[in-house]
């Protein structure tokens, strides 16, 4: 099982000081967070993709390429690659290039994002979001597997004998996670191709996550890729920790209350009761994360959001230390102890190459 962190790359004022980091500071902070993740033994760093303030990660492969050059083991991924507004040809070539530079330590998560204006900025119609996701991935899937592609669809100019370059490393395309928190069509898409399904459940109660994951698992089996238990599932989460749980709540509350993703809504107590958000001690994070298996089954990847809402970099790096020292080692041991035989490992380039 893989454990890691993801960042949405928001540039948010620190509510306790009123200071807003510059874009450069935020970009450099994301890089420092990735380096720290490798240092403490986490498996994955993933960046979001946004094209509007207050977010900075508009070019994920540029950032991940830089991180690849400075790390040795960390798997580099995305928390969203916009399959609806990026050209599938460019995705195919950018991530194949990154594969070569990172010696295969690359996968990606496809999604539609949560910013409606991005569609017209890139010449698309939000009302076509699901059809765009389906058609664009159908082309991307072929571009990584066929040397010469003939293509004609609704949303881009035709291709005739087109070869995406470079070709995927070792002839093995990057593993694809299809990310969705609300669309059964995307769960079906992931199941149809035998790809991974990532439910970033930071906003949602357990029962909603259960329904989405069960749908994906059932359809994965329907399409002949294996049993429901062999489907590849990833989950999100959000944590803030201090040694003492009361200190964690007191310190995190002002950040939660104004967070651009979910601030100005339910109270911190209501949100932690209803969603995977855990604010407390490392032991409380371990205990709550272990419950995810009760409604999602045995899964392959757990990513945590830890740098949102204006938290200072120093605080975020302290959070990563706690993850690496006190949380993830326990989670690895506890999840492994109850993992049935036959549940597949998390996908890696080496594993996909061996399977081929």
Automatic annotation (TrEMBL):
A Pfam match: Bac_luciferase
Region: Disordered, residue numbers: 1-21
The Luciferase-like domain, residue ranges: 1-295
Alphabetized Gene3D superfamilies for the sequence: Luciferase-like domain (3.20.20.30)
UniProt GO MF annotations: oxidoreductase activity
EC id: 1.-.-.-
Low complexity: bias regions: 9-20
Coiled-coil residue spans: none
UniProt keywords, alphabetically: Monooxygenase, Oxidoreductase
Enzyme class: oxidoreductase
Matching InterPro entries: Bact_Lucif_Oxidored, LLM_FMN-dep_put, Luciferase-like_dom, Luciferase-like_sf
Matches recorded under NCBIfam families: LLM_CE1758_fam
Name the UniProt record assigns to this protein: LLM class flavin-dependent oxidoreductase
UniProt organism field: Streptomyces bullii
């Amino acid at each position: 099982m893989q454990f890691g962190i993801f960042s949405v790359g928001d540039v948010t004022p620190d509510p306790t000081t009123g200071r807003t980091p510059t874009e450069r500071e935020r970009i450099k902070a994301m890089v420092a967070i990735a380096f720290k993740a490798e240092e403490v033994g986490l498996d994955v760093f993933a960046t979001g993709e946004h094209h509007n303030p207050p977010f900075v990660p508009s070019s994920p492969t540029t950032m991940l390429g830089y991180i690849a050059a400075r790390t040795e083991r960390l798997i580099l991924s995305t928390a969203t690659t916009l399959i609806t507004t990026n050209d599938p040809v460019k995705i195919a070539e950018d991530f194949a290039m990154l594969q070569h530079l990172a010696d295969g330590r690359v996968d990606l998560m496809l999604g539609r994002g949560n910013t409606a204006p991005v569609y017209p900025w890139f010449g698309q119609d939000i009302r076509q979001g699901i059809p765009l996701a389906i058609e664009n991935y159908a082309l991307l899937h072929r571009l990584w597997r066929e040397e010469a592609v003939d293509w004609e669809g609704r949303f881009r100019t035709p291709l005739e004998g087109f070869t995406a370059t470079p070709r995927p490393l070792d002839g093995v395309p990057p593993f694809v996670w299809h990310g969705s928190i609300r669309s059964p069509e995307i769960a079906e898409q992931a199941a149809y191709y035998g790809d991974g399904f990532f439910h970033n459940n930071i906003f949602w109660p357990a029962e909603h996550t259960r329904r989405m994951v069960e749908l994906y698992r059932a359809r994965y089996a329907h399409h002949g890729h294996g049993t429901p238990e062999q489907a590849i599932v990833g989950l999100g989460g959000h944590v803030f920790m201090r040694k003492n749980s009361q200190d964690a709540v007191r310190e995190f509350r002002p950040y939660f209350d104004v967070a651009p993703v979910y601030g100005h809504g339910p109270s911190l107590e209501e949100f932690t009761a209803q969603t995977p958000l855990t604010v407390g001690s490392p032991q409380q994070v371990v205990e709550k994360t272990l419950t995810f298996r009760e409604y999602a089954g045995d899964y392959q990847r757990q990513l945590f959001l830890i740098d949102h809402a204006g938290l200072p970099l120093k605080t975020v790096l302290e959070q990563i230390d706690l993850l690496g020292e006190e949380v993830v080692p326990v989670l690895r041991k506890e999840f492994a102890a109850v993992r049935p035989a036959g549940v597949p490992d998390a996908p890696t380039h080496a594993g996909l190459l061996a399977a081929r």
